[in-house]
Amino acid sequence: MYIHKCCIDHCCVHAQAHKDGSLQQLLNGENEAYDYDLIVIGGGSGGLACSKEAASLGKKVMVLDYVVPTPKGTTWGLGGTCVNVGCIPKKLMHQTAMLSTAIQDARKFGWEFDESVTHNWETMKTAVNNYIGSLNWGYRVALRDKNVNYVNAYAEFIEPHKVKTTNKRGKETFYTAAKFVIATGERPRYLGIPGDKEYCITSDDLFSLPYCPGKTLVVGASYVALECGGFLAGLGLDVTVMVRSILLRGFDQDMANRAGAYMEEHGVKFIRRFVPVKVSVVLIAVGRDACTDKIGLDKVGVKVNPKNGKLPVNDEEQTNVPHIYAIGDILEGKWELTPVAIQAGKLLARRLYGGSTVKCDYINVPTTVFTPLEYGSCGLSEERATELYELVYHSLFWPLEFTVPGRDNNKCYSKIIYCSSSSLRHMNDRVIGFHYLGPNAGEVTQGFGVAMKCGVTKEQLDSTIGIHPTCAEVRRQRLTGSACLRLCFVSKMKNMTYLICRI
Ligand code: FAD
Ligand code: NA7
């Protein structure tokens, strides 16, 4: 049978149009009726990725981004939390603190310099904020290059397909779109006690604080608290962390306590089982609230979890209102990480406008906590893994770089959790948890993340030849028969290396 090529092309266009919903829109005459194909609310990690991808697929896209100043009046540019008040300044200030350790090590390696070494907060703050400024500018240029219309204004829904925007001069403008993506992120929570907004700062203020904070009390014990407390102590400040219950809730507790113990040994004080009731000058890091309460979701019927303000979505990031989607930190039960928001945003745009069916995979996401001794993890914690039938291999180790300066012997630690042969058949021998406490944890953990995504087994890890001398190779110790003692690459430390078998 002969089929004319035009018919095939026509059918393909129809199939594509049906898949991405544009056929329905054309039938409804939707695209003509709206100002934009897509409006993205929030120009952070997720929102920027999604809007640029949608525009490169030929759609008319607007991104609305606005930073409500903190109670101290701090504000910042385009790019959201990660670039302005999250990952980027945090990692650069962590690096500043790590350099102090490097300076101490340097003497042992033969470097000679004057005794007095001091740190200038103002210089660090300015350098970090100049770099952030260049990133803000780069994001604006990228949006312009991709033909995304960026407007610096606060958005709220007033009708299912219409938002009201208010700019910093209070001017109101209205825009309509066929579809919306909400990517408004989170902002730090306050304590709700007398003096908190008056006398406390949060991570939103810390990274651009014009003066060195000096002696600091950090309230909270999750990763933002420990990372900030860690680098402040690394700069030589007197730091105390006030812990309500446990360190790093949600992470492997064995690893969390080791990271905390290292901080304590290096001068950070911990006050446990205390909460503040009144404050003078404090850094609070007691969690973050989703920015979903003032954006008119009630007016358009988007369901919100009233307990935490998070949005439940299906596995395509679609809310209960079909033309409204959500990505990033505001999602219920998903990772609050920049690469996750970016991946979800890109894949969503491709599904909406590129005919793709690929969904965001939220399983086995690798992450790192940048405490003074960095903690990288991927997959299940030991606590979670005990629900399965698992084996844990673990090992203390001493990085080569630490040996000559003679510091922190026996403090680094790595752990692999895998399903034993008699456990769930389809998971047989699979690595289900990776945990690493040591230098360059992010770099080490990233590779394990890839391997775990590919379903790596313990046997495959054992048969992978390591890179020597590195910290990443340490996990590759081989079991000697059924014995509990194994050889570690730091071979003289046999007594520090053992195997926990739960069979
Ligand atoms: P955001 O990046 O928060 O962007 C949301 C944007 O929307 C903001 O610009 C906000 O001002 C704007 N907005 C809100 N409401 C409106 C409105 N109504 N109208 C217009 N605009 C609005 N993640 C990592 O992966 N690695 C790390 O090392 C890391 N470190 C972190 C350290 C700290 C201190 C913090 C606080 C976070 C850290 N994160 C880290 C988390 C990471 O920053 C977030 O996961 C990521 O930024 C989430 O992206 P998002 O797009 O969901 O939201
Ligand atoms: P988290 O992960 O929500 O943790 C909050 C921490 O603060 C945790 O240790 C809490 O203790 C503690 N907390 C909460 N309320 C109080 C009060 N009232 N008093 C004392 N301590 C308290 O917050 P993070 O800021 O670390 O990170 C949130 C997100 O930001 C993260 O996922 C990234 O996206 C960036 P608890 O364990 O509940 O006893």
TrEMBL record:
This is thioredoxin-disulfide reductase (NADPH). FAD binds at residues 91, 329. NAD(+) binds at residues 220-227, 287. NCBIfam families: TGR (TIGR01438). PROSITE patterns: PYRIDINE_REDOX_1 (PS00076). GO terms for biological process: cell redox homeostasis; cellular response to oxidative stress; glutathione metabolic process. Pfam families: Pyr_redox_2, Pyr_redox_dim. Residues 36-272, 277-345 form the FAD/NAD(P)-binding domain. Its EC number is 1.8.1.9. Residues 365-476 form the Pyridine nucleotide-disulphide oxidoreductase dimerisation domain. Its cofactor is FAD. Binds 1 FAD per subunit. GO terms for cellular component: cytosol; mitochondrion.
